[in-house]
Design goal:
The structure is a homodimer of 189-residue chains. With 189 residues, chain A is an alpha/beta fold. The first copy, chain A, has one domain: Rossmann fold (3-Layer(aba) Sandwich), CATH 3.40.50. Chain A has 5 helices and 11 strands, in the order αβββαβαββββαβαββ. In chain A, strand 10 and strand 11 form a beta hairpin. In chain A, helix 2 packs across helix 3. Chain A is globular. The N and C termini of chain A lie close together (12 Å). The relative contact order of chain A is 0.17. Chains A, B: Belongs to the purine/pyrimidine phosphoribosyltransferase family. Xpt subfamily. Chains A, B: It is found in: Cytoplasm. Chains A, B: GO terms for molecular function: xanthine phosphoribosyltransferase activity. Chains A, B: Converts the preformed base xanthine, a product of nucleic acid breakdown, to xanthosine 5'-monophosphate (XMP), so it can be reused for RNA or DNA synthesis. Chains A, B: Its EC number is 2.4.2.22.
């Protein structure tokens, strides 16, 4: 998606540890118009697929998922990372290791919001090693739902998550795949 | 807002500790159409106010804020609760006590995304004791921005946050104010 790639080049910055910082428009301050274009593009990429629900993970996936959901006319469910009195006790759980935060955490979705046989599209802002995606897929499997595929804004193509999903025949649509960040320059696949 | 009140009565449940559980449509599974009506209503309530940016707090405020932002044509910034390698070191910080989670946490906004003199509207899903709201107002003050007011989906009117803000002349627009939950029945103000 050319608009997103241009924006990454214009406003993204690289930081130590292969971090691509896009918090001026995607995951801290949020450019709503850009998100809307991203949502339209996800709809175009999954236009032939039946989607009953969009699944994402808090926190930064939520913005992109709810704007995309307007183009699919389906509800969003977001997996929670934190314990809360407000969450049902009866949840599907999985475990995710975050390289960015260097810790392992449990993600949870109430069993009430994933019904057997539903077609679930995963939407998230980033895919790198794919740990969050694997956790969400695990939850979809536990709920006996069907995984439609994954819509990702930015994939780090130099990490293994995306290609691992593709090699298993999973439909993965990444709108910008960063192939390399060597010498401080962002090169797309 | 009648539509929201009806939905709270229909799908909301009461749990121990004055918890009003609306996770089937507002803060775990998200009804996008309802959120869009909520966004429209916030715009109507603040139509005479100049708003440059919407500020919210992760995680459940994000969905409501980004949908509302489409009606204001402004960016959203969300305060972060967790340490992250991706966050600038140079942040405005405040401390918030969460009754729901029974812990104190630090919220942070990068100094780059709140500019002196900007008019900031706070949007969030819930207001109870007002601790999160006070943290966000503190950050707005530290950044020398102007607080336009607060748009809240559900206010717990039997807790003191809302009336404390109103008594200080702050413009607070709550779309549904729950005055009482006695005997398991939700009564609106």
């Amino acid at each position: 998606m050319e608009l997103l790639k241009q924006r990454i080049v214009k406003d993204g910055t690289l930081k130590e540890g292969n971090v691509i910082k896009v918090d001026s428009f995607l995951n801290h301050q949020i450019d709503i118009e850009l998100l809307n274009e991203i949502g339209k593009e996800f709809k175009a990429r999954f236009v032939s697929d039946k989607v009953d629900k969009i699944l994402t993970i808090e926190a930064s996936g939520i913005a992109i998922a709810v704007i995309a959901a307007q183009h699919f006319n389906v509800p969003v469910v977001f997996a929670k990372k934190t314990e809360s009195k407000n969450l049902d006790n009866d949840t599907y759980e999985s475990t995710v290791y975050s390289y960015t935060k260097d810790k392992t955490y449990t993600i949870r979705v109430s069993k009430r919001y994933l019904n057997e046989g539903e077609n679930i599209l995963i939407i998230d802002d980033f895919l790198a090693n794919g740990k969050a995606a694997e956790g969400l897929i695990d939850i979809i499997n536990r709920a006996n739902c069907n995984l439609v595929g994954l819509g990702i804004a930015i994939e780090k193509g130099f990490q293994k998550g995306g290609d691992s999903l593709r090699s298993r025949g999973i439909k993965l649509e990444s709108l910008a795949i960063v192939q390399s960040t060597e010498n401080g320059k962002i090169i797309f696949r």
